[in-house]
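Duplicate of earlier report; VOC family protein input re-posted below.
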Amino acid sequence: MLRLGFPVIGVTDLDRAAAFWRAALSLRNSDEWSDSAWQTLVTADGERALGLQVSESPVEPRPRLHLDLFVDSAEEQQAEVQRLLDLGASDPGWTDYPEHPDFVVLADPDGNVFCVVDLSHAPSS
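Output:
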């Protein structure tokens, strides 16, 4: 039976990406499927959460697939956005926000965009 696995992010610097996503989402490295071109990150209870794969393709400025990270309030969103920026995320200069967005677009240290979504304000209109 087919089932959904987990998201995989293409990165140029595996160690830097693993450090960022471990800190961002309280994940840890797994020895499973890990080598110089791949790192599996798992939750505290060992569930697979995120795969990181070395990639030579350029970062897509507006990818069709991306991660949404959830928070429960505008205050939490503001705090998490700042924490992620402090960890090495950046503001990619996103210009396609709706009038009253429930999300903030950031980029990881490799330039892959993701969103921090305030669920108390969702969905975006």
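The beta strands are 8-11, 28-35, 38-42, 48-54, 67-71, 103-107, 113-118.

Merging into the original ticket.
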